[in-house]
Write a structure and sequence with these properties.
- This is Transcriptional regulator LysR family.
- Belongs to the LysR transcriptional regulatory family.
- The protein has ten helices and eleven strands.
- The mean pLDDT is 90.
- The protein folds into three domains: 81 residues, Arc Repressor Mutant, subunit A (Orthogonal Bundle); 94 residues, D-Maltodextrin-Binding Protein, domain 2; 99 residues, Periplasmic binding protein-like II (D-Maltodextrin-Binding Protein, domain 2).
- The strands form three sheets. Strands 3, 4, 5, 6, 9, 10 and 11 form a seven-stranded mixed beta sheet that branches.
- The protein is elongated.
- The protein is an alpha/beta fold and 293 residues long.
Amino acid sequence: MEIIKDSDWEILYKLYETPNMTKVADMLYISQPSLTKRVKNMEKEFGVKIINRTSKGVKFTSEGEYLAKKAKEYMEFIKNVKEGLNSYKTELEGTIKVGSPYTYSKFELTDVLFEYSKKNKNVKFEIINDQSNNLFKMVLKNHIELGFICGDFAGDVNKILVKQNKAYIVSKGPINLEKLSQMQRIDYKTNDKSKEILDRWWRKTYGENPPIGMFAGYVEFAWQLVDKGLGYACCFLPDGFEKVYNLCLTPILDDEGNNIIRNTWLVYPKKKQMSTVVKDFVQFVKDNIQIRE
C-alpha cells in the first residue's frame, strides 16, 4: 500500500483546475506516465474511480470531484500551517505571488522589491506578468495574493494607490495635434480601462472614434516602431521613460488643460486571510509607496 503524499493532493488539485494531463505534468515538472501512475495509486487507495480520460481531456467522477475539493482544502491547510509557523520566527520567510503589468514591472516593480528585500532577505517573490484586467481577475479568484493593477477596476478588493501616470502622444518628432487624425496610429495590447480613458479623450477632441491603425502587439514594440518614424502611439508613460527612449512626448490634456491621468493600485482580496509575509509587504507599500489622495 502506497502512502498518499502532499504531491498527490497537489496533482488532484491541479488536474481539477486544469483538466489536461499533459499541461499538469508540465506544470509540476513530472512525466505524464508518472502523473497517471500517481492518479491510479490514489484510485486504488481510496477504492473509487477519480477521473475518466476523454478526447477533450480529463473528466472527474462525482467521487473525484469530492476528492479534488478536499485536495484544495488540504493544500490551503498545509500552506496556512507553514505560514503560521513562520510567524514565530524573528525573520520573515515565505513566498509572495504578485501580479504586475509589463510596464510597471520594468519601470517600477524592480525598485519596490529591491527596497523591501533589503530588510527581508528571506522573502521571495513569484512575479506573474499579464495585462491588468487579467491580473485583476486572478486576484478575485485568489490565483495571486497581490496585484499591481493599472486602471480603476471595481470589485471586492482593498486598494492602495501607488502611482499616477500621465498620458502622452509618443512620436519621432514634434506633431501638430490638429493633423493627428491624419497620421498613422500605432496600437498595442493594453488593458480595458486604459483604452477607455484614451478613447474617451480622442472622441471628445476629434468628434469621432480613434482610427484603426497598425497593431504592434506589445507596447515596447510600438515604441520601437515610433522610433523608426512609422507613426505615433497614445500611451500612459512611466517615470524615466524619456531617459530610455529618445522620443518626442506631447502631453494629452483635458478641456481645462490638466494632464490625463491613469491610476495604478496595489489590490488584494478583502475576505481572504493574508499570511504574515503578505501583511508585511502590504504595510511596506503603505508606508513607503502609497499616494495619499
